[in-house]
Amino acid sequence: MTSRRSTRLCLVFAALCSMGAAAADFLGSESCKGCHPDAYTAWRASKHARSMESLTAEQQREARCTTCHAPNLTDQAMANIGCETCHGGGQYYAPAYVMKDPELARLVGLVDPSEKSCRSCHEPSSPSLRPFQFAEKLKAMDHWSAERQKRGATPSPRAER
Ligand code: HEC
Ligand code: HEC
Ligand code: HEC
Ligand code: HEC
């Protein structure tokens, strides 16, 4: 959906919008912590946050392992599977005024991770006993319910518009 508003925003943020699809730089998962404490805590306790630890020192240098266990090791010098591995590099969307505007945030790089994105790593060759069940695995990595609950209690910036 491209509204007139977002077109106008694109004129203002012309440089950013043209970069929207390009890889923005990562700020690191720590940078999301202050504004998304619940999401951060849940992620920190997840296997994604420690995916490098399943590899030996030698395997941590092997692309055939790091493509899934540390996919941003070479391009962003980031270990494990962080917020931005799934949500996109935060360079342009992380500033508060952008984050409060869901449409603008997406124009400048915020990604809504899909089942397809999970399957780029959770594919038949990965060491799982059972085939990947999206709904079940999504539930197992919940880091949004607490946030949404809090948002319900206090009106979100989106609802205020
Ligand atoms: C300065 C504070 C701030 C920082 C830093 C920040 N966010 Fe946000 N984020 C927000 C606010 C505020 C919202 C809007 C919440 C709402 O709609 O009620 C938001 C929304 C989101 C959403 C949901 C967007 C939607 O419309 O559904 C995601 C996903 C998200 N942020 C991810 C991240 C990630 C990943 C990082 C780190 C790279 C990050 N945020 C850094 C404040 C921040
Ligand atoms: C295609 C993506 C992919 C690649 C490539 C990959 N892994 Fe994994 N690996 C996964 C996924 C996904 C899981 C989690 C599976 C699950 O528990 O559902 C996993 C889990 C593991 C685990 C933990 C298993 C357990 O029982 O907890 C180890 C150890 C591991 N991988 C080692 C490796 C090594 C060593 C390499 C390189 C030779 C490698 N992986 C390459 C996707 C991958
Ligand atoms: C493995 C991929 C993955 C990682 C890693 C990840 N997320 Fe998410 N995140 C998702 C998915 C998928 C959803 C949407 C779930 C849904 O809508 O049911 C989501 C939802 C969210 C939401 C809620 C959006 C809304 O509309 O309410 C926020 C906020 C968020 N993530 C922030 C973060 C932060 C901060 C981190 C790191 C601390 C992080 N995520 C790490 C995949 C990921
Ligand atoms: C960049 C690759 C990658 C992506 C994308 C990814 N995962 Fe994972 N995931 C892994 C790896 C690797 C592990 C195992 C980490 C370990 O134990 O070393 C894992 C582990 C998990 C686990 C814990 C083990 C298990 O099977 O119960 C869950 C749950 C999970 N992922 C769900 C998801 C979901 C849902 C998505 C999509 C929203 C997703 N993952 C996207 C690579 C990925």
Structural class: mainly alpha
Q: How many strands appear in the DSSP assignment?
A: 0
Structural Rg: 17 Å
Percentage beta strand: under 5%
Total discrete domains: 1
Number of helices: 13
Largest sheet entry:
none
Using the alpha-carbon principal axes, give the shape: globular
Low-confidence stretches: 17-21
- Could you estimate the helical fraction of the residues in percent? 40-55%
Ions and ligands: heme C
SSE series: HHHHHHHHHHHHH
Distance between the termini: 18 Å
Calculate the mean pLDDT score and round it. Answer: 86
SSE inventory with pairings:
Elements: H1 4-12, H2 14-19, H3 30-33, H4 37-44, H5 63-69, H6 73-76, H7 83-87, H8 96-99, H9 102-107, H10 115-119, H11 134-140, H12 145-153, H13 157-160
Bound molecules: heme C (4 copies).
The site of one heme C has 18 residues, from α4, α7 and α12.
Briefly say what this structure is.
The chain has 13 helices and no strands.
Report on the structure:
With about 160 residues, the protein is mainly alpha-helical. It has one domain. It is built from 13 helices and no strands. The protein has helices at about 5-10, 15-20, 30-35, 35-45, 65-70, 75, 85, 95-100, 100-105, 115-120, 135-140, 145-155, 155-160. The longest helix has 9 residues, at about 5-10. It is globular and about 45 Å long. It starts with a helix and ends with a helix. The model is unreliable at about 15-20 (pLDDT under 50). One heme C (HEC) binds next to helix 3, helix 7, helix 8 and helix 13.
